Amino acid sequence: MSDSRTGRRFPLSLPITIREGESADQTSGRTQNVSAAGVYIHANAELEVGSHIEFEITLPSDIIGGTHDVRVRCQGRVVRKENPGESRSPNGGVACVIDNYKFVREA
C-alpha cells in the first residue's frame, strides 16, 4: 500500500469545529496531526469518505511564534475513515485533504 501523504505532518492536538456540506450544524473534535495539505481529525461525527467539509482550526500563538492566536478556515474532503478499532480514538477518525483555506481576522 502506498502512502499518498505529502508534506510534513505536525502532531498537533488542537480543537476543531466541523461542518459537513451545506449543513448549518457544527460538531467539534480534535486534530491528531496537521500538514499544509491535510489534517487527521477525531470527532463525534459520522463523516463519510468523499464528504465535503468546512472546518476551522485555531493555531495558538505559542506554536506559531506570534503574539496572537490565528484562526484558519478550511474547505476539504474526507479521503480516509478509520473505525473505532483502527484508530487511537474510541470514535475513530478521518483523514481530510485541505482544498483551500483562509486566515480569519478578528473583529
Describe this structure in words.
The model has no long low-confidence stretch (mean pLDDT 87). The chain has a six-stranded antiparallel beta barrel with strand order 1-2-3-6-5-4. Strand 2 and strand 3 form a beta hairpin. Helices cover 4% and strands 50% of the residues. It is mostly beta strands.
Structure summarized in a few sentences:
The chain is mainly β and 107 residues long. Helix content is 4%, strand content 50%.
Question: Given the helix and strand composition, which structural class is it?
Answer: mainly beta
**How much helicity do the residues have?**
under 10%
Helix-strand topology string = EEEEHEE
- The count of strands amounts to 6
* Rg: 14 Å
* Distance between the amino and carboxyl termini: 46 Å
Number of helices: 1
Strand content: over 45%
